[in-house]
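Sample entry was shown:
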Amino acid sequence: MREDSTRPNPLLIRLVAAMVFVVLVWSINYTVAKIGFHYVRPLALAAFRILVAGLAMLPVAVFCALRERRQAGAGQAGRLKRMSRRDLWNFACLGFFGIFLNQGIFTVGLSMTSVGHSAIVVATTPIFILLAACMQGLERLTWRKVLGLIVAFAGAVVLGAGRGWDLNSAGSRGDLLTLLACISVTIFTVLGKRVARSYDALQLMAYNVTIAGLFALPVAVWQARVLIRAGEWDDIGWQGWAAVGYMGVLSSAVCISLYFWVLRSLPPSKLGALSYLQPVVGTPFAALVLGEPLTRDLLAGGTLILAGVYTIESDASEKG
């Protein structure tokens, strides 16, 4: 019987479903963090979030290590790659740049700026990923991609003009920190693409997130002591811990694992397209829940940035 070529690819359907879920969780994450700031200091929220993600993935990391040992003892090849010292270094780099540094800077930066500005700045991530991929010879610049870069840059100028680019203002510093977080996730994505095909996706993320939790542990202990001394520990309440749980378990442990699973099948710049969908969902959600205003510079600059990134991502000259 001849197979119907028009039938949807089951793997593609699962990849799209995973990407939609990740976009929704990450878009709502902005508002959850803003609510969490009412109960937890930004640096404490960032450290607790990463530590909770590491604790959530620790049992998975132990399971992967035990399964790897059983396979090695039985002489089976298995799906899990035996860890070497070089592998541990790769996991440490991914955990540091993609989780500890990225999520720490992002959370602190979000506390200084609005959800709309933060989401729009995050939407520039595919641009950095594209430039990094081109520098490494993984992709090539075309006239369409260059046009997209110019349009997106114009949007960034418009967005910044609304702030006046005054680094003395908390909002501008928050936008700058968010931009640094975008650069760190670019390193995470490009480096992750190199190693993603060599490991089981669950194994890779279990080790990455667990190691990131180790990086966050001393910061979390320090911040816990600060909160206790300031008499703020009991004020966290269930709302603050719920925000930590959402950001740590769902947004970090679960969604980053799905991100890496999708990364095994898609090129970095295409996966980076997830970023430009976040302001489309996150900004209206924040306006509805938090009452954040949709300013003229936010709408104009955001529209240009999204148009520029779409122009880059819709370039059909690159086969994924």
Q: What stands out?
A: The chain has a mean pLDDT of 79.
